[in-house]
Amino acid sequence: MMYLFVLLWQVIIVVQGFFAYGTAYRFTRDRGDNGVSLFGWLIVFGLASIIPGLGIYLWFTNRD
């Protein structure tokens, strides 16, 4: 049972990682269009993707 939980957590983190990249790209495009800014926002949203649901929530709230 624990292995299923860990596997599910890892899948959620990977999916939210894709959402984190999209959100970081949107923030970079709107606030500072360079690679350093993208890297910084990707770190922020990548850390947020560790918490289940937070990455998806940020992606939905910051869509334009």
Overview of the molecule:
This protein has helices spanning 2-31, 35-48, 54-61. Helix 1 (2-31) runs parallel beside helix 3. It has 3 helices and no strands. It has 64 residues and is mainly α. The protein has one domain (20-64). The model has no long low-confidence stretch (mean pLDDT 87). Helix content is 81%, strand content 0%.
List keywords for this structure.
81% helix, mainly alpha, 64 residues
* Count of DSSP H/I helices: 3
Uncertain parts:
none
Share of helix among residues?
over 70%
Distance between the termini: 40 Å
In a few lines, what is going on in this structure?
The protein is an all-alpha fold and 64 residues long. 81% of the residues lie in helices and 0% in strands. The chain is elongated, with a radius of gyration of 13 Å.
Detail the topology: elements first, then pairings:
Layout: H1 2-31, H2 35-48, H3 54-61
